[in-house]
Design brief:
This protein is an all-alpha fold. Helix content is about 65%, strand content about 0%. One of its GO terms (molecular function) is glycosyltransferase activity. It is found in: Membrane.
């Protein structure tokens, strides 16, 4: 993991002045991450979200990487590549914290690290196959909010690669994203490889929108652009999860960030419209709308704050409703609100990454030592308590945001994080909802180190195939150690002295 440094960035005593001098372009760091990403792409052919009927490997001479020892080797290569990407990201972060590089090297690094993953099998997830299956349903006149892709009697490759859990489960995504998925499937048909690649290309529009908004958000929110880009664009959560996955959150984040920017720049109509469109891709974006109302209210003239709030609220609702109705109608051909019931589908996922679920499982295991009981009542009660806590927390954050401005953006960001953590399910890439907004604020190095630990941890707690690893306790222990070591490496190169000991073995021989 993150242990060594480029020579130009290694801190030592008496070099405080040198730390203020711009560094050379970090070619080696970027190259390391690119090699790591290439290894991820190659190894994913055997260890990632592979196809059931693989036209690339199939039963040919290279098919051995999908089975037995071949698959073990593929996993070893994949995790090596992952380690190199994280190592490079942390090294780049040390440059950023020292103020020795600007934004350009970070953008180049993120682009180089993403490029090999454009043609990679899905990494740490199989959700993209569900996207294609649900788009195929809409393409062939079926309602994705009524049934799962298993009802399709066409495009067998699309259907069979959807995860068994989602074969008969209604879609939980917004209608506009289903329209996008429909367009992808209409172009690629039953070709799953082209479907995954085209989906990534389409989602790059979301990345472009986020990249456009971040520099402007930083100016309003007081952060540093290199830090924001390093945290939001070059991180493993973005490179490996949102793009390598890929996940539709990448598209939603573009509308969310640009909408929040519009609110800060007093373009309130644009803000409400854009965030509503983001909600039509993934409903999570709606969390930001009440905070945008406060921002609008505080930009209105007039002595009565109550009246300003009512005016802003009424105008926001007046914009939200027609955009919501029009977006749904254009996407589905009718005012189909079945996607609200589809939001229950992800709750089928139960693991301790969601804190309330984890608490419920702990209590279940304690009681189960004495009495033979079922786990579901414990998890259900804990999740209900978590929802009450989330509602209380969200209402408090919304009330604290009543001054509008940057405070409202900050409160919206931590509310998005709270939703990701407390509302079932908690999936690793959900944390990007809040991190992308919060990246534009000023960060302390120790807080960035915490983000490094979280980023590495949540990326690794699922196996490369997309199946959860959360109950493989020895594996999770290794993940925790790797996460903590990566975090420590951001603040101090080679925190355990491993590389130094390797480079100078003669010192130990003399001692």
């Amino acid at each position: 993991m993150a242990t060594t440094t480029d020579p130009a960035q290694t801190p030592s005593t008496g070099v405080a002045e040198r730390l203020r001098v711009p560094s050379r372009f970090p070619y080696r760091t970027i190259a390391m991450g690119t090699v790591g990403s290439t290894l991820l792409m190659i190894a994913a052919l055997g260890a990632g979200g592979i196809l059931i009927s693989d036209p690339v490997l199939g039963h040919g001479p290279l098919s051995w990487v999908r089975y037995g020892h071949g698959r073990m080797l593929a996993n070893a290569v994949l995790y090596t590549g992952f380690g190199m990407v994280v190592w490079a990201w942390v090294r780049l972060g040390r440059y950023v914290l020292a103020g020795r590089i600007g934004s350009r090297p970070i953008l180049v690094a993120a682009g180089c690290w993403m490029a090999p993953l454009l043609v990679s099998p899905p990494l740490f997830t199989r959700d993209v196959f569900s996207y294609l299956g649900q788009g195929a349903q809409l393409l062939y006149g079926l309602d994705p909010y009524a049934n799962g892709p298993a009802e399709l009697d066409v495009l067998p490759n699309v259907v069979q690669n959807v995860h068994p859990l989602w074969q008969t489960t209604p879609a939980p995504y917004g209608p506009l994203f289903l329209l996008i998925s429909k367009g992808v499937v209409a172009t690629t048909g039953d070709n799953m490889i082209l479907g995954v690649i085209l989906m990534r290309v389409v989602l790059l529009v979301g990345l472009a929108g986020t990249l456009w908004a971040l520099p402007r958000l930083v100016k309003h929110l007081g952060g540093r652009l290199p830090v924001a880009l390093w945290l939001a664009v070059a991180s493993p959560m973005m490179v490996i999860h949102l793009f390598g996955g890929p996940h539709n959150d990448l598209m939603m984040l573009a509308f969310l960030t640009i909408g929040v920017l519009a609110a800060l720049e007093r373009k309130h109509v644009v803000a409400v419209v854009l965030v509503t469109i983001g909600m039509l891709i993934k409903p999570t974006a709606a969390i930001a709308l009440p905070f945008i109302v406060w921002m609008w209210a505080n930009h209105l003239t007039g002595e009565s704050k109550v009246r300003n709030f009512l005016r802003a609220g009424a105008a926001s609702v007046g914009l939200f409703l027609p955009v919501f109705v029009a977006g749904t109608w254009i996407s589905l051909g009718s005012l189909n609100l079945g996607w609200w019931s589809g939001l229950k589908a992800p709750q089928l996922i139960a693991n301790w990454l969601n804190i309330p679920t984890g608490i419920g499982e702990v209590f279940y295991n304690l009681v189960h030592l004495i009495v033979d009981v079922q786990v579901s009542p414990f998890v259900t009660v804990a999740r209900a308590a978590g929802m009450l806590l989330l509602i209380g927390f969200g209402v408090r954050q919304w009330w604290l945001a009543r001054g509008g401005g940057t405070e409202a953006v900050y409160r919206a960001g931590i509310s998005l994080l709270a939703v990701a953590i407390l509302m079932p399910p908690t999936l690793p890439w959900y944390l990007t909802w809040g991190f992308v907004l919060l990246s534009a604020f000023k960060w302390q190095p120790r807080h960035l180190a915490l983000v490094v630990a979280v980023s590495v941890f949540v990326t690794l707690v699922y196996y490369p195939t997309g199946e959860q690893a959360l109950y493989d306790w020895w594996f999770i222990a290794g993940v925790v150690l790797a996460s903590l070591y990566s975090a420590a490496s951001l603040l101090r190169p080679d925190p355990l002295g491993i590389i130094d000991a390797w480079r100078r073995p003669e010192k130990f021989l003399r001692d």
